[in-house]
Specification:
The protein is built from seven helices and 14 strands. The protein is an alpha+beta fold and 273 residues long. It has two domains: 87 residues, Aminopeptidase; 143 residues, Aminopeptidase (3-Layer(aba) Sandwich), CATH 3.40.630.30. It has a seven-stranded mixed sheet with strand order 1-2-3-4-5-14-6, with helices on both faces. Helix 6 links the parallel strand 11 and strand 12.
């Protein structure tokens, strides 16, 4: 097997070996580079990434199943290292995957001398809906919990257009009107006609994502209440085999996730080499 650099005009050679979005980004962005793994007269693998902030970030690393266990991925990584060593640039590989995938990739990267990042900025977790067991309800008195579905478009539009508030609070990707939001599963705590906390779930292909978890105050009490309400609704409205993906954007959120969903498995990985 040999490794060769792929030129932009050769992008079509990688079709079927990488997602279209990665190939389109490679073709259009002059900063993104690609390597091809060639076995005989066939391209059987590739690596795509770019240098950002003095680090080469790998976006895609793939070898055809029939060509694995032959040192192809190792050859791609070693070739990249040889190129980058002349510039004193390290490699960063980050991904999210299920335990069996993670075990294989982690073992491979460890064997190539990569080190796992201990303090990841954002950790991701995965769990089946069937594994969610709601904890004891937190008592609330005057606050009102309303689903996005019940709030209606006008209220969501007012949240979307409140620029002053949105500068301070965490926004769901694409805003409160994003069609990917599951309005029946997402909730807002309303106090005096103002949203003071919310939990937002989005559909991403076959995966359900806990996209945003936010409260205006420093206390986790309201967040705990939202998680409690959401956990019951998830079990009522989702298939038990539905996968829920959660991004723990802070230590506080991570602690709450571990408390409410102790069976959630960390699926985020970050390695430097």
């Amino acid at each position: 097997m040999i490794v060769c650099r792929v030129e932009k005009e050769e992008t079509e050679l990688l079709h079927g070996l990488a997602p279209e979005e990665e190939l389109n980004a490679f073709y259009r962005d002059e900063n993104i580079s690609a390597l091809a793994l060639i076995d005989g007269d066939e391209i059987v693998g590739c690596l795509i990434g770019e240098i950002i902030g003095g680090v080469y970030r790998v976006y895609w690393l793939y070898v055809e199943p029939a060509s694995r266990r032959k040192g192809g991925a190792k050859k791609l990584i070693r070739t990249l290292k040889e190129i980058l060593d002349t510039m004193a640039i390290s490699i960063h590989v980050a991904w999210e995957g299920e335990p069996d995938v993670n075990e294989e990739l982690c073992g491979f990267l460890n064997a190539q001398g990569f080190l796992r990042e201990k303090n990841q900025e954002i950790k991701s977790y995965s769990v089946k809906i069937s594994s969610i067991a709601p904890a004891e309800k937190t008592n609330k008195k005057s606050d009102k919990v309303v689903s996005f579905e019940e709030l209606g478009k006008d209220f969501l539009e007012s949240m979307q257009n409140d620029e002053a508030a949105n500068e301070e609070r965490m926004m769901p990707e694409g805003g409160f009107l994003n069609p990917a939001i599951r309005k029946d599963l997402s909730f807002v705590v309303v106090k005096k006609d103002k949203p003071i906390a919310y939990i937002v779930f989005m559909e991403n292909g076959d995966v359900l994502e806990l996209s945003t978890l936010y409260s205006t105050g420093a206390s986790n009490t309201i967040i705990s209440y939202l998680l409690y309400e959401a956990s019951y609704v998830l079990k009522e409205k989702c298939d038990e085999n539905q996968i829920l993906h959660i991004n723990a954007v802070s230590e506080g959120v991570e602690a709450l996730v571990k408390y409410f969903i102790p069976d959630a498995i960390e699926v985020s990985n970050s390695y430097y080499g």
